[in-house]
Amino acid sequence: MVEIAARLGGLAPTQPRIGGLLIVERNVMVYRRTWMILFSGFFEPLFYLLAFGIGLGAYVGPVTLDGESLDYAVFVAPGLLAVSAMNGAFYDATNVFWKLRYGKVYDAMLSTPVAPKDVAVGETLWAVVRALLYSAAFLTVIGAMGLIESWWGLLALPACFVIGFGFAGAGIAAVTWMRTWKDFEFTTLVMLPLFLFSATFYPITVYPEALQWIVQALPLYHGVSLVRALTTGAVSATQLLNVAYLLLMGFVGTGIAGRRIDRLLLK
Amino acid sequence: MSTVALSLRPLEFFFAQYRRVWRGTAVSSVATPVFFLLALGVGLGVFVDRSTELPGDVSYLDFVAPGLLAGAAMQVASFESSWPVLSAIKWTRQYHAMLATPLRVGDVLAGHQAFIAARLFMTAVVYLVVITAFGAVRSPLAVLTVPVAVLVGLAFSAPLAAWGAKTELETSFVAIFRFAILPMFLFSGIFFPITQLPTAIQWFAHATPLWHGVDLCRQLTLGDVAQWSALLHVVFLVAWTAVGMTLAFLSYRRRLVR
Amino acid sequence: MAGDNGQPLIHARGLVKRFGELVAVDAIDFDLQRGEAFGFLGPNGAGKTSTMRMIGCVSPVTEGTLRVFGLDPAHDGVKIRARLGVVPQLDTLDMELTVRENLVIYGRYFGLPRRELGTRADELLEFVELTERANDKVEPLSGGMKRRLTIARSLVNDPEVMLLDEPTTGLDPQARHVVWDRLYRLKRQGVTLLLTTHYMDEAEQLCDRLVVMDKGRIVAEGSPRELIESYSTREVVELRFDDSRPEDFSYWTDGLVSRVESLPDRVLLYTDDGDAASHGLHERGLVPESVLVRRSTLEDVFLHLTGRSLIE
Q1: Mean pLDDT of residues grouped by 10 in chain B (258 residues)?
Q2: Where are the alpha helices (DSSP H) in chain C?
Q3: CA neighbours within 13 Å on the CB side: how many for B57?
Q4: Is C10 exposed, middle or buried (0-12, 13-18, 19+ CB in 10 A)?
Q5: How do strand C267-271 and strand C259-262 relate by DSSP bridges?
Q6: Between A32 and C68, where is the model more confident?
């Protein structure tokens, strides 16, 4: 018979230093098998780039940004890069919903030294990793296609980190309020206009002035504006504002998510 | 009892189930076309109209609106025929419950597809109203886009139901959406004429039901119908639906009757 | 293990859990010593699970004192959980992972090194007889297998105390016996067990000492034998009737038995000599449909203490 308790105390558990990293480790374990889902997410912005940048680009013609005339593909690529970072982070928030409400994944963690706040930190971390994976791949592709016009473009990857962080925090916080899958219908109502109207496909100057103000308040606008400045080289102080907006969103979101998850799990 | 009467019964079930979620889908089924038309037809249209001429000298809004209608039909049908089919087979096992009654496999399939057709009909009507409100309809023939959209949808929902009843791998639908549905949405002439694409990909687009649906809807809303080409489109879509339904029937029977 | 010097592993005084108006646990006292198998016996809603969750540091204490390993769950939840093995009432296995991966990642949550966890997982799978299912997904496993996996999982950190909340509820009789067998082996290896159950046979099989809980309170405490001795008689006569069940039993039973419990489907007579009592009834002319003489169980203890059955 196996002496299961023979080493009583012999495996004296050390307290995990960053509980959040263990959540990342678990997710890596899961995706080792379902890598296709992860991998396929990268193609979404790529298909959009080919359709809009190249296909439709011929009909759109050059676009003027800050007085400089740009090829449409050069204009739209950074927009889609920002979108890929946003999506990467946000897809993952959907999984958090499942794990929280149906999968009971965190309930099991709670009987271990992992704490509820680690859950929020870990899932945010993982979502950012996923956002970075997508962004890095997409950045490589648009680089190879010659759609990056400045050395500032190297900073686009850290910029995607900031975008991913912002949307991961906000997304995970948002799903803690969702009760059933039906509520996801409403996330589409938020994500679709963000995707379409955040100056992703054309300069904000198309809009009437009142609308421009609203668009400038949208988080993805700041992501797009930041990445586009870097890949086209038209960098200004505005980009500090972009970064500040997204970081704030990430910190506030993660903070709220931590507290909400705590409340949902510890009764 | 006739097959029609029997297949109305599952239809009733799917409607009862739908009643619980209709609010969410109602909002998004109106909002989605509005968002797309505003962002692309109106917003991006400014640049397209300024820069080039589209075939037939139409505005970009008029060009993109009928395409989006056909595209929406594809998306609604694909969604309704993927996870709901898997669920009725594997998770909630509603199909099994239905088959424990006098219903036959064909009734279950017909009932579910009839529900999808009804959903497509509603979606198409909403779309048509929205694009008319945007002033993107030039001909009364546009009314015919509603049945065409239903047909486009069924050309997708039937083969997908066949796959849903066959597959053991639920994640395969993720792959289908990412690698088949999305590329079709983007490269079947909704957003730009496919003549812009390399010849090989053009042939590929011609083989998809979506391209035929898009072109047919566009002919109808622009009132520029080329009889032979329109007829060919319809025949093509009907053929896809018929083959899809046959495959679905075979695959349902193999899965559900053991 | 260093430093408990005979001090109880778990110590509770005046422990209270309230959910709004509802008092789930109403001022209970108990101590758990190292090496014991200690049980909370009671029906659903008696407050057993709430007590377990407070000990497991996943539910804040409303009032009173609770010490686990001498530590306060309010401040040292992490340290306490590191030394516990928890088997919750409903399985919380990770459906996205395989059987073996469930063990490995759970061990990682405890901060155990990955290298050691491979061997540990294999040992544990062998212990619960799931080696052949190691690389399968969790979902298709039977209820009993999932339960065994949950038990294996709770052992991954070599816990000093195992908390088992209704370990065999919902399992078929055969699967229950397999689970009991594994728990019995653990007990023999010196693992301290704390379990809740509403099955008296489970409590009798596994517990050295138990408390009977009802409506958030502890109504009795002792070993199964002590409880039966203090709250019941040695034997019980069970009578079942067709339509001719007498209204009043005192006429038939006076002087023959020490106590009568009248239940909807049967009548229980408490006595130290069941055969003598049933013989006496026969002599007085009472003819039930069936007569069964059996030994007293914890069910009888519970019935006596609360006037209700354990499983309603």
Answers
A1: 70 77 74 90 89 83 95 93 87 84 87 93 94 93 96 96 88 89 94 91 93 96 91 96 96 88
A2: 48-55, 73-81, 99-109, 114-127, 143-154, 173-188, 200-206, 224-231, 250-253, 274-283, 298-306
A3: 0
A4: buried
A5: antiparallel
A6: C68
Q: Where are the domains of chain B?
A: 3-256
10 Å CB burial of residue A99 (0-12, 13-18, 19+) is: buried
Per residue in A84-135, pLDDT tens?
999 888 888 888 888 888 878 888 888 888 888 888 899 999 999 999 999 9
Residue B130, token pair as written in the block: 């929205």
Tell me, yes or no, if A117 comes closer than 8 A to chain C by beta carbon.
no
Residue A229 counted as domain residue: yes
Strand C37-41 and strand C209-214: the pairing is parallel
Q: Quote the number of domains for chain A.
A: 1
* Residue A141 belongs to a domain: yes
Residue A64: which H helix or E strand, with range? strand A63-65
Query: Where in the sequence is the domain holding A239, given as residue range(s)?
Result: 19-265
* DSSP helix/strand/coil, B149: helix
Residue A121 exposure: Cα atoms within 13 Å on the Cβ side: 11
A105, A115, A267 ranked by CB distance to C94: nearest: A105
Among A30, A48, A56, the residue to mutate for chain B (most B Cβ within 10 A):
A56
Look at B32 and A186 and tell me if their CB atoms are within 8 Å.
Answer: no
Q: Is residue A7 part of a domain?
A: no
Q: Do chains A and C touch (3 or more CB pairs under 8 A)?
A: yes
Interface of B with A (CB under 8 A): 20-21, 24-25, 27-28, 31-32, 35-36, 38-40, 43-44, 46-48, 50-52, 54, 60, 171, 174-175, 178-179, 182-183, 186-187, 191-192, 196-197
Domains annotated for chain C, with CATH where assigned, are 10-228 (3.40.50.300), 233-295 (3.30.70.980)
Q: What angle do CA B38, B43, B49 make, to 5 degrees?
A: 120
Give the one of A14, A34, A105 whose C-beta lies nearest to C111's C-beta.
Answer: A14
Cα gap B230→B7, rounded to integer Å = 31
Residue among A2, A10, A115 minimizing CB distance to C158:
A10
Residue A13, domain member (yes or no): no
Asked which of A145-154, A244-253, B9-18, C287-296 is least confident by mean pLDDT, the reply is B9-18
